[in-house]
Amino acid sequence: MGTFLFDKIVFGPIKSRRLGNSLGINLLSTDIKVCNFDCVYCECGFSNKSRMAKEKFCDTGELFNQLERVLSSSDNETINAITYAGNGEPTLHPRFLTIAKKVKSLRDNYSPSSDIVLLTNGTTLNKASVQKAFESIDHILVKLDAGSDELIREINKPLSSFGIDKLVFGLMKLKTNIKIQSMFIEGTVNDVDISNTTEENVDLWLKWISLIKPDEVYIYSINRDTPILTLKAVELKKLEDIAKKVRKLGIKTIVS
Description:
CATH class: Alpha Beta
Number of helices: 8
Distance between the termini: 23 Å
Number of domains: 1
Oligomer: single chain
C-alpha cells in the first residue's frame, strides 16, 4: 500500500497527464486527507474521519506567500496550469472564494499564460460562494466515475448524502467551462465487483454525460498505487472504446 500525501501547500510543478506542467495548490492539511469522498483508488489513501474533524485546512497567508514566491521566480520553468488539487476536496476550504480571487490576481501578475484549474468532486456546487469562486477559475474538472448512485457509493464512498441526479442537474445550470474526468477501474473490494467498464455501467454513465454536455471528457485509469490491492488498471483499448462512445455524442474526449 504505497499511497502518499502532499506535504506542501504549493507543490511542483509536476508533469500532469492532462494539464501539462502543473503547479499544485493543496488547500487542505499536509498531514491528513480531508475529503467528503473516500474513493477506493485514491492515491492519498483512506480518510481518517476522527482526525479530519480536528485538522483541516492550510493557512491562507502562507499559501499566498508561497505561491507568489514560486510564480515570481525568474528561473522557474514554464507553468501550464495552476491546479487546486492536493489531499482531498479543495472547495471544502471555508475561504475558498477569497483564495480563488487572490490566486487569480497572482496569476495575472506573474504568470498570465497559466490556466487556473480546479479538480473537484462537485459536491459543493450548490454553495453560492463556490459558484462565485468559479469566476476566478479557467477550467473546472469534475469527477464522475459511474452512472448510478449504487456504483458511486461503491467506488467513491461519499461520506455524506449524495445523488448523481443532483450533481448532474447542478452542472447543467452552471454557465462555466466544465470538463468531466472519469476514472475507470476493474477489480473487487471486499469480494464485491466494482468494475465500471461493463456495457451496462458505461451506458448509464453516458446518459449523464449527454445531459451535462461538458466541453471535454478525460478518461483514464489507475497509474499509481491505491489503498486496495484488488483493483486493476483498465487496458488502453477498452478506454479507447469508451471514448469512441463519448465522441459519438459530439464531445471532445481525451484518453490519458
